[in-house]
Design brief:
heterodimer; A: 297 residues; mainly alpha; two-stranded antiparallel sheet; B: 328 residues; Rossmann fold; Alpha-Beta Plaits; 37% helix
Chain lengths: 297, 328
């Protein structure tokens, strides 16, 4: 009979035993519910009584829930994995794993899947709350599915960032610090680059550059590195009746077909995740000759 | 006897620090091999190379004829490793701990269930099966760790300082357990600082210092080789001066000392007075059993009254100090 990955079984047992996992899930849902309730209270009086009022409430609730969930996934998933391999080193169980018949791939994959299983639980837990927006209208199934896919892909990317630092460093604290630091740099750095680039290009005589095909692709590529920008622009594209998988950008000379930002984000996130996963596997090896991490005579 | 461990010019460097210097070590199958050396001698480095956790800088190490560098996965099947620390998982019961490592060695579920019961009974932890690992005493954790190292039925067990930090009872239990494992046909490589314990349980020893193997072989052979002469302790009730006279002129007596005196300086001083006795004399004796009997007869015939005449047993501690003297 095919057996589950031993690391996955062990980590799931440990993670779901005790109150910690349930407390985290409760806090996560309470924050979401609290924000949703406050928002509903704030906007329900302002939308008026016309036919589109419910639609506007539905859309606002949906985007708010998706955004808060995305923030939480960005912060929680790297923490779930940053302690995984570094924790084995701290508990002095790392050597026992490496000296067993487990391959580095099994160790890294088991750690990733156990963290993603919990992240998936967090994502699935928001679906009932997201479905509230259906009651008001204005949101279709496509939007919900893209939001769920975007959350999941974000969880994969940020989990592998945590995993990489966990394999690289010796302490959970250090790995968590570097993982969160990387996430913050990505989330703040990319918008900063976009703003600076827009200022430079907007004020220069290079405005014809903005219409070039390569610039369109490059700008979409940079924007697609950021989950909030990618999913936000997709949502606005969909609300204006666009295709969920691609969009047509009209330039002065031609129409350029580009993949929808969420598609591009998914592809890029999965490529980066694969690279980080491979790097983590490479790091989980017995120390090479003369370069043992812990100098033990 | 076929050898299960063989190292050939095994060398390992940590930067500029030479941890192992062309180590040539052989451990026969079925032996309990005590690996002795001061801190930093290279014991753990050797063990980590044999468990495939560390690649040597140069040289070769083989377990049951399999190269640790070329076929590490095959070696991992042959070796059970118990490091000098006990890695603990939170929220894990004793059986789950063994189950996890059983899975890690690819043991099928049915066999794993049977093995967990048998191994917990073997290490006398059957009654702690559902207890969290964290709640076990240090001695129990060591025994559980030994059971873990046995999960995949390895031919060679490598135990790094297994007795460190254990109370006397736990040490005795561990020693008995190792004897039981040897009776099951396992080869055991064990490092320890408690040399008297190693002498009691080991069939072979290797003494290492600064990465070099100073001596290795069967315990009795090492004791014999390192101490070619024996020390005889004689307690003289009366006739001590006469006894000294007879012993000094005996051809097999290499050195004569009075207990508590330093070498020969005091031995050459005033003759012993029986009034201040009884006195104890220590004799480095080069003769065999017959010569020893003759010496006793000579002393008695010479009018010396003796209350104690016995050979001092030299132990591993003496050998260790003798071999490693002046190098550290």
């Amino acid at each position: 009979m095919l057996e589950l990955n031993p690391i996955l079984v062990k980590d799931l047992r440990s993670r779901m035993r005790g109150a910690r996992a349930y407390i985290l899930l409760t806090i996560y849902l309470l924050i979401l519910a609290g924000v949703t309730l406050l928002l509903y209270a704030a906007i329900s009086g302002d939308v008026g009584n016309d036919l589109n009022a419910g639609r506007r409430i539905g859309q606002t609730l949906f985007f708010t829930i998706a955004t808060v969930a995305l923030i939480e996934v960005c912060l929680i998933t790297p923490v779930l994995t940053s302690g995984s391999i570094a924790g084995e080193k701290e508990r002095q169980t790392y050597d026992l794993l490496v000296a067993s018949l487990l391959t580095p791939w099994q160790i890294v994959w088991g750690k990733l899947v156990s963290a993603l299983a919990f992240a998936s639980l967090l994502i699935v837990a928001i679906v009932p709350m997201m479905s509230l927006s259906f009651l008001f209208g204005g949101v279709g199934l496509t939007e919900v599915l893209i939001a769920i896919a975007g959350l999941f892909v974000t969880a994969v990317l940020y989990a592998t960032i945590g995993l990489f630092w966990s394999a690289m460093l010796q302490s959970s604290l250090g790995a968590t610090g570097f993982a969160i630091g990387t996430v913050i740099v990505l989330l703040l750095g990319i918008p900063f680059v976009i703003v600076i680039a827009s200022l430079i290009l907007g004020s220069s005589a290079l405005s014809n550059l903005l219409d070039s095909v390569w610039f369109i692709y490059l700008s979409r590529f940079v924007a697609a590195l950021h989950p909030f920008i990618a999913l936000g622009t997709t949502a606005s594209h969909l609300s204006s009746g666009g295709n969920p998988f691609f969009e047509i950008v009209r330039t002065g000379t031609a129409n350029v077909i580009v993949p929808s930002p969420w598609v591009l984000f998914t592809i890029l996130a999965l490529i980066f995740s694969a690279v980080l996963l491979a790097a983590s596997v490479r790091l989980v090896q017995p120390a090479p000759s003369g370069a043992d991490r812990r100098k033990r005579p | 006897m076929a050898s299960i461990v063989e190292t050939c010019d095994l060398t390992h460097r940590y930067g500029s620090n030479l941890a192992l210097d062309h180590l040539n070590l052989t451990i026969p199958e079925g032996a309990i091999f005590g690996f002795i050396g001061p801190n930093g001698a290279g014991k753990t480095t050797t063990m980590r190379i044999l468990t495939t956790l560390l690649l040597p800088t140069s040289g070769e190490a083989r377990v049951a004829g399999v190269s640790v560098t070329r076929e590490p996965r095959v070696v991992r099947r042959l070796v059970g490793f118990m490091p000098d620390f006990f890695g603990v998982y939170d929220n894990m019961k004793s059986w789950e701990y063994l189950d996890f490592f059983g899975r890690s060695y690819g043991i099928p579920a049915q066999q794993r269930r049977r093995l967990i019961g048998e191994l917990l009974d073997l290490v006398d932890l059957g009654h702690k099966r559902d207890e969290p690992v964290m709640s076990l005493s240090r001695g129990m954790k060591q025994r559980l760790s030994l059971a873990r190292a046995m999960m995949h039925d390895p031919r060679l067990l490598i135990l790094d300082e297994p007795a460190s930090g254990l109370d006397p009872r736990a040490r005795i239990e561990l020693r008995e357990l190792l004897r039981e494992l040897r009776a099951m046909g396992k080869t055991i490589m064990i490092s320890s600082h408690i040399l008297s314990e190693l002498a009691e349980m080991c069939t072979h020893i290797g003494i290492i210092e600064r990465g070099k193997l100073l001596a290795a072989g069967e315990v009795q052979e090492i004791l014999r080789t390192m101490r070619p002469h024996r020390i005889i302790e004689i307690r003289v009730v009366s006739g001590a001066a006469r006894a000294e006279e007879l012993l000094r002129t005996h051809p097999d007596v290499l050195e004569l000392r009075r207990e508590g005196a330093r070498a020969s300086t005091e031995a050459e001083a005033e003759p012993l007075d029986d009034e201040t006795g009884p006195h104890t004399l220590l004799v480095d004796f080069a003769g065999d059993e017959h010569a020893l009997g003759d010496l006793l007869a000579l002393l008695i015939a010479g009018g010396v009254r003796i209350s104690h005449f016995a050979e001092q047993s030299s132990d591993l501690e003496d050998i260790f100090l003798h071999v490693t003297k002046g190098i550290v």
